[in-house]
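Data card: per-record layout.
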Amino acid sequence: MRRLAYDIANTQANQRGMMLGWLDLWGLPKNESGVEPMAWMGMGGSGDTSPLDGALMPGMATKSQIEELRAASGREAESCT
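The structure for this 81-residue chain is written out next.
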C-alpha cells in the first residue's frame, strides 16, 4: 500500500509540474485573483459538508469523516461513510 501511495504521489507531482509548465509556456496565470480555487466546479460550499470541515473536493473525506473512521474498529470501520 505504501509503494502504491508513493507512486501516486510522485506521479501526480510530475503531472502538476507539467501543467504548471504549460501555463508558464502559454503565459497564463496559475490562479485568478479574487476567485476561489476550483470555483469552476460549482461546489460553492453548499451541500452537507462545509469547506471548514475539510471538504476540498467531491469524493474527499472530510475531517469529521476521518475522525469517525479513526474512532471505529472492526465491521464498524468497514461501513464508515
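Known properties of this structure: The mean pLDDT is 80. The first helix runs from residue 2 to 26.

See the next section for split statistics.
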